[in-house]
């Protein structure tokens, strides 16, 4: 039997998208000590996919492939996932049917007719008050958004900062941007690191938010940023 590392209980916020219908869902919060098998069960309720056929792929904030979550017995926290990454759900059964019937003329049901049906994924979610059809979902979402706005107001552009991202090393840098990022949910802080430990040059999907050398820039959530007196570390290469 495989020996898996025990991960201390924690959470990670992940975007969810699916194959076949190009569906995307709001960011979800998952415990890191959940198994991939149990994660699939949760994703089945969110996406309408099937536990027995779905595959899960992880992509970073720059839409670059990170890994596949292939071991059902592994813990979510054993994979290199960070807040804001995206889980792409591939449903083999859905793809198989799509390939078999790709030449068949598609029937598009009117929205009002679809809303009246009781055998759809949406009807199931509404009946069981799951996800966005749960009143608590909106309350929690609004609360999280307000808390994030309060945090972003404490961040000052030009200030020194320390960045602590789950499963990552502490990084020092300077705040060069704060606010919204086109294509991403919520508030973000643009940081120029002291060392080339970032993922970009202050640009996201072709739009520039601040300027810095390649691999020195990053966009992080305000809850992962602490502003303060964090002087830049000097590295004297003449000393041993």
From TrEMBL:
Residue ranges of domain CAP-Gly in the record: 179-221
Location(s) in or outside the cell: Cytoplasm
Name of protein: CAP-Gly domain-containing protein
Keyword vocabulary terms for this entry: Chaperone, Cytoplasm
PANTHER family for this protein: DYNACTIN 1-RELATED MICROTUBULE-BINDING, TUBULIN-FOLDING COFACTOR B
Similarity remark: Belongs to the TBCB family.
Chief location of this protein within or outside the cell: cytoplasm
Superkingdom of source: Eukaryota
Annotated GO CC locations: cell cortex; cytosol; microtubule plus-end; nucleus
SUPFAM superfamilies per UniProt: Cap-Gly domain, Ubiquitin-like
Entry's Gene Ontology BP terms: cytoplasmic microtubule organization; post-chaperonin tubulin folding pathway; tubulin complex assembly
GO molecular function: alpha-tubulin binding; microtubule plus-end binding
